[in-house]
Amino acid sequence: MNEECLPPNETELSTEEPLYLLCVDDEVDLLSALIRLFRKESFRVLTATSGKEALGILKKTKNIGVILCDERMPEMSGSSFFEEAKREAPDTIRIIITGYADIHDAINAINRGGAMGYFTKPWDDLELTLTVREGMRTYLLKQENQHLQEEFRQQSRHLEEWNASLKKRVMQQTAVIRQKMEELNRQKASIRHASDAMLLIFIHQLQQRQQLLSEHSRRVVALTDSMLTTLELPSDQCVEIRTAAILHDIGLFTVIDPLEGDYLSGESELMKDAGEFKSHSVAGEELLAISEQFKDIALIVRHHHEEYDGSGFPDGLAGDQIPLGSRIIHIANYIDNTYSQETGSDAEYQVNCKLGANMGSHFDPALATAAYRAVKEVLMDADLQWSI
Fold first, then answer.
1. In the chain, what percentage of residues exceed pLDDT 90?
2. Is 0.85 surpassed by the pTM of this model?
């Protein structure tokens, strides 16, 4: 076929490196004919007159996309050459050219050497050109696929390395955070131990100075604990309110003279001076406010004598203006003081009646249920114990 009749290569075969067609035949005239046939193609043509020469070219030349090889050659047949070429360049497309009588050899080349197909002599120029072009495209697709797979493998390795690095950094940061948390917990524990020690000192002083006052504080704490259990407040808030209950009368250190009797008995001069007595809640706040840790507790202590209707002291706060802890301790304080004055068998009933009569005026009515339960649970316990 006249080469002018060949269709143009509509699909350009682009590659960064030159693309080659290797033609192998011991007849130089046939090689020349192949060179002329493919001289206008986008790939370059290499030639070899033997299988041995072709293997040398294959080993030193990259990007040989297609091999055209004659089957009948001296020393090494096309089938044998393709067998070697398959090991050397497995992606290269191999096409055998053979005489009509050698069809069996062509099939052998396909089976042994992985040839894509075969052409008989004389070949059809158009059919051979189109087949070689398709072979080149197949080869380039294989190369592109391998390139993409390699990129994927590299990205996978990078991702694995990045994940390993991230995991390492996370573990390092976790270790740092854990170390800081442990240090913080040690500091908190140290502060807590210091606080407990301070409370023990206050309690000891309270017991040494006023036995009745110490017993009163113990019962107020027990009543407060009962109310807190009923109210189901957060644990941190319960600890804060309970601590305030322990220390609610600590301000009396500044105003009680132990030689004058007990402030609960009504015999001391302190009870005769209401103004001096009222100052004890403020004095308690000032004592506790020395420590930043007791700032909120000090506020509860300051307001534990406020009345729900605003008639209490020291600031005349009303309703929700009064800290919840102060409202709870105020009720617990009242319950114990009232119960200590009841001697009849119906003491519990009398205390509850007085509590009910003052709900909404002196006490927060929302705390009524907790207060009644505290009366029942605590005041009937003759073996009341108190521990921090």
1. 34
2. no
